[in-house]
Amino acid sequence: MKRRIETFGLAVILLVLSGSNVSYAQQHNHPQQANATKAPLPASSQSEEIAIFCPTMKTGQLCSSGTANILQLKDEQRDQWIELARKYNKAVDAATLQLFKESEGVLSKEQVELLKAWFAVGLNPQMNDLLFGKGLGPQKR
Fold first, then answer.
1. Which of 49, 58, 87, 99 has the most CB atoms at less than 10 Å from its CB?
2. What's the chain's Rg over C-alpha atoms?
């Protein structure tokens, strides 16, 4: 039972981390996505075109085009995936904003600021490094 609770907690944390400020992400122009490259870059110089989590977006936000490229999706399937990823990001964003709102009644002002910092831009490259290091990133062909 404890393991089940821990697994559920981890899933909730990952879900919450995935969507902070998605409305910004959906409207944000990603210039790297306009110039696709097929060769994987070293983790330290990740392009959003091959990123799972976008380096220029809030923590946990999926790169819709980057994940489509990693999954090697084409045409209609790619368009469908991008729509699904955006829908996912919007749902997670709503959950993140709700967490921030509800936490204000439980946490101190300093604790709320720390919580919000966990969702700031900058952690996604490390998450990508971890996933890529486990072989879960772009596959060389």
1. 58
2. 16
The tokens for 82 are 């991008």
Buried/exposed 77-90: b ≥16 CB within 10 Å, e otherwise: ebeebbeebeebbe
As a dihedral over the C-alpha atoms of residue 66, residue 68, residue 72, residue 76, rounded to 10 degrees, the angle is -150
What's the number of CA atoms in the CB half-sphere (13 Å) around residue 140? 5
Phi, psi of 48 (to 5 degrees): -65, -20
CA distance 11 to 140: 29
Residue spans of the domains in the chain: they are 2-27+42-133
19 band by pLDDT with thresholds 50, 70 and 90: very low
HSE at residue 115, side-chain half, CA atoms within 13 A, is 18
